[in-house]
Design goal:
disordered N terminus; binds adenosine-5'-tetraphosphate
């Protein structure tokens, strides 16, 4: 792990965030949230509901308000403990926006342009729309009340890795647990920290990525070469943490596989490999062990075993979520006290940055 001169060698600070764009999927859970829960016992963790990030895609205000509470309640249901971590809504700590602006001014246009997620998300917004509704309309309504169209490839979408860097650097986080899709963005955070430190003096910790071994990338059930995403328009592409038992079973049964019938983990068999990955991640075992365990079974038998496992892991989370979600005031109080704790650290960093650059 790398540290700056004015930070302790043994950095035990973690930052991570998740966007309130829809109810989370098992991809978010296995790739990030499960790891967040495990880390809270050994690290000083700052976790946020990244509402500012979610503004890059237009959402009805009422939907966004609902999604924020849904996400907050869901993470508590997954096991995030507000007595152990600072868990807050990103926009409640204004320093995120303040540092993002400063870092914007230290980011080269070319390096921001190289971010592949921007290329993918802006292309999806454009071509997805063109393919589906032709050239006449330029808006697409989605089941989450989000609206994406070619008019909404906005500057925020382009600059959001810089806001992400601000999120991380504000808390001196040495470790950032993320899925593999976010690795390039973390690299940008590291570059910005190093650039700022060398232009002024050591200020930011240069963060390290923490990627889970098995579930770094869970793929879509209908297109298993693509990432499972909570804002995908096809509900059968993903399993949500609020899906009822029968819905989970049906989605797994319908998951795309192939016709050769062998249970193997191979790039040539993305569908079955993805299901093996999901199985191993929920069972906390190696994919090779899952392959050995499933030898001799048909795809249908394997899918049925997998469905039982996923149902048994998701059901308690879903039930806890329903209970927590009913108490809005409790959620709001937890969010507010999380923001207060986060602000204590964030405001110190921001003051330091303003002093170093000469505006304070
Ligand atoms: N399919 C996935 N497999 C493993 N990890 C994943 N993550 C997301 N999808 C997968 C990880 O979840 C964390 C939070 O993600 P986010 O909501 O902030 O943004 P995202 O990566 O863009 O997630 P989605 O589900 O794809 O959201 P939308 O559809 O709104 O863009 C991150 O650590 C991410 O790596």
């Amino acid at each position: 792990m790398q540290t700056t001169n004015d930070t302790p060698k043994e950095n035990k600070i973690v930052y991570s965030a998740i966007q309130p764009t829809n109810i989370v999927t098992i991809g978010n859970y296995l790739g990030a949230i499960k790891n967040w829960v495990a880390l809270q016992y050994d690290y000083d963790c700052f976790y946020s509901v990244a509402d500012l990030h979610s503004l890059t895609v237009y959402m009805e205000p009422a939907t966004l308000r609902k999604n924020i509470l849904d996400l907050y309640a869901m993470l508590l249901a997954c096991g995030i403990d507000t007595n152990k971590v600072s868990f807050f809504k990103q926009s409640s700590v204004v320093e995120h926006s303040q540092l993002a602006w400063v870092l914007n001014c230290y980011t080269y246009f070319g390096e921001a342009r190289r971010m592949t997620q921007f290329k993918e998300k802006s292309t999806n917004a454009f071509t997805g729309f063109i393919q589906q509704v032709g050239d006449v309309f330029n808006i697409k309504e989605r089941n989450t009340s989000t609206v994406v169209g070619r008019d909404n490839v906005n500057v925020g979408l382009f600059a959001y890795p810089i806001l992400q860097a601000a999120d991380i650097l504000l808390y001196n986080a040495g470790h950032v647990p993320i899925g593999a899709d976010q690795k390039q963005h973390l690299e940008l955070s590291r570059n910005l920290a190093e650039r700022f430190n060398s232009r002024y003096s050591p200020t930011f910790v240069v963060p390290e990525v923490l990627i889970p071994k098995v579930a770094a990338k869970i793929n879509s059930l209908d297109e298993p070469t693509k990432k499972m995403s909570k804002s995908n328009t096809n509900p059968n592409s993903m399993i949500l943490l609020i899906d009822e038992d029968d819905v989970i079973v049906r989605k797994i049964k319908r998951a795309v596989t192939d016709s050769d019938g062998n249970i193997e983990n191979s790039d040539k068999k993305p569908g079955i490999s993805n299901l093996l990955k999901i199985y191993s991640a929920f069972m906390d075992c190696k994919v090779d062990n899952a392959v050995a365990e499933m030898q001799g079974k048909t795809y249908s038998q394997f899918k049925s075993i997998l469905a039982d496992v996923v149902v048994s892991k998701i059901r308690p989370i879903r039930e806890k979520f329903v209970e927590l979600r009913a108490d809005k005031q409790y959620l709001q109080d937890c969010m507010d006290s999380g923001a207060e704790k986060a602000k204590l650290v964030a405001s110190k960093t921001m003051n330091k940055v303003y002093r170093k650059i000469g505006i304070q």
